[in-house]
């Protein structure tokens, strides 16, 4: 097996998971965005039809640029010239963020800081505070040598793709030593926050919303794996799944994405990078990357959704630190499955449906990649498991004691309240 070292996060490296800076746990999902309670859903029409260049579309509203492939072989100049993104001047982003004022900071990490900003919906020019639309502006630390490659990869992929379940990158700034990225607002933050954050104010996701989020994430991965795109995400995890005001899931952080194998090749050979607890065993052992590597990661996330536990959690009892190793023996037995299920979901689901989700997770987690389903197969199964008429999390659970949770979700949807909070660190980044 390839020798791996799990390195502690340092301030001059890109954060792939969560990190702890100066004792404050913060979430920066790689290139993704974790938005804090400073952003309110009613303040920000995040999905507001921002203009972009035309390209070929499929039946799902997705778009792929007509730029020639493979994308990973293109030079920096070719990437920037062919992207469907606005090139911002530094002065524009200073105006949009009120000169990067400290009270506009939404999150921090090794890559840099994320600032709240405003731009005009149509012209994309900087707007006055509380006018136009809210965006998240990510500024690269100037001493981050690793960050430039991730910054460029983000522009490379999100500059070519548009899909309802991929976070929208609006533009970038490359001026002297300054590198910034401008994203759509994702007011409900990450799936990681909703699954693992505890507190009397912050309420967990309902069963129906968890299925909705899983379906949206599956749609995003299936699009990336399609014959039209052929991209391997490589760092699929809960902190890279962001939620809009209606709990629609969108994949973020394309810093580690790779073009998939082409022709008669079965895999892509690459450095082992990603997040401990989510990476597929064959990828860890050989560095061979395939779309089935993402499927394994999807299985881990599906297990986190079922259990409400992190993929790796040293605070769990001995023998339960690694979620997959602990839970796998229970997934194939309907009578034992209750040991895995999140007890906060009691009364909200039928055991038959939960067992089908667990069975799907088990297939995704197959040790041998050839036994895992494709993301198209996963998507078909997830569509069959959805709760009818789920709208903004307002479907009533079947037990009265969930009324408080339902009220909290309704208030968030109706009054624009964002219950974001930064979680403690979870999984560790992998480097080889």
UniProtKB/TrEMBL annotation:
<keyword id="KW-0472">Membrane</keyword>
<keyword id="KW-0723">Serine/threonine-protein kinase</keyword>
<dbReference type="InterPro" id="IPR000719">
    <property type="entry name" value="Prot_kinase_dom"/>
</dbReference>
<feature type="compositionally biased region" description="Polar residues">
    <location>
        <begin position="62"/>
        <end position="72"/>
    </location>
</feature>
<keyword id="KW-0808">Transferase</keyword>
<keyword id="KW-0611">Plant defense</keyword>
<dbReference type="InterPro" id="IPR011009">
    <property type="entry name" value="Kinase-like_dom_sf"/>
</dbReference>
<keyword id="KW-1003">Cell membrane</keyword>
<dbReference type="InterPro" id="IPR050823">
    <property type="entry name" value="Plant_Ser_Thr_Prot_Kinase"/>
</dbReference>
<protein>
    <recommendedName>
        <fullName>non-specific serine/threonine protein kinase</fullName>
        <ecNumber>2.7.11.1</ecNumber>
    </recommendedName>
</protein>
<feature type="compositionally biased region" description="Basic and acidic residues">
    <location>
        <begin position="393"/>
        <end position="409"/>
    </location>
</feature>
<feature type="compositionally biased region" description="Polar residues">
    <location>
        <begin position="382"/>
        <end position="392"/>
    </location>
</feature>
<dbReference type="Pfam" id="PF07714">
    <property type="entry name" value="PK_Tyr_Ser-Thr"/>
</dbReference>
<feature type="binding site">
    <location>
        <position position="138"/>
    </location>
    <ligand>
        <name>ATP</name>
    </ligand>
</feature>
<feature type="region of interest" description="Disordered">
    <location>
        <begin position="382"/>
        <end position="432"/>
    </location>
</feature>
<dbReference type="GO" id="GO:0005886">
    <property type="term" value="C:plasma membrane"/>
</dbReference>
<dbReference type="InterPro" id="IPR001245">
    <property type="entry name" value="Ser-Thr/Tyr_kinase_cat_dom"/>
</dbReference>
<keyword id="KW-0418">Kinase</keyword>
<feature type="domain" description="Protein kinase">
    <location>
        <begin position="100"/>
        <end position="385"/>
    </location>
</feature>
<feature type="region of interest" description="Disordered">
    <location>
        <begin position="46"/>
        <end position="76"/>
    </location>
</feature>
<dbReference type="InterPro" id="IPR017441">
    <property type="entry name" value="Protein_kinase_ATP_BS"/>
</dbReference>
<keyword id="KW-0067">ATP-binding</keyword>
<keyword id="KW-0547">Nucleotide-binding</keyword>
<dbReference type="GO" id="GO:0005524">
    <property type="term" value="F:ATP binding"/>
</dbReference>
<dbReference type="GO" id="GO:0004674">
    <property type="term" value="F:protein serine/threonine kinase activity"/>
</dbReference>
<dbReference type="GO" id="GO:0006952">
    <property type="term" value="P:defense response"/>
</dbReference>
